[in-house]
Amino acid sequence: MIIEKGDKNMKCDLFIKISLIMIVVLLALNIILPILSSPAISYAAKNIQYKVIDYAKVPNKENFEKLFNEYGKEGWEFVAFEWNWGLCVFKR
User: What are the boundaries of each domain within the chain?
Assistant: First the structure.
């Protein structure tokens, strides 16, 4: 089989065209896929609030439960009890 100069140039041109198409497709996928996928959740970016109450100021158990239930309805979560200082810590 005799390979002429024109055939060699055609094969080289075809290789270059296919390579360029593959590069363009990969670049397009690199741009489009992150946009279509769901974004990562960053918990550090959330606005976290804390509420500290002095449990010594709550007169009895029933009021204490009522207070905890009210905070729970407002979205507060009990996270800590500090015995020495007499504090309860909530966050949301």
Answer: 47-91
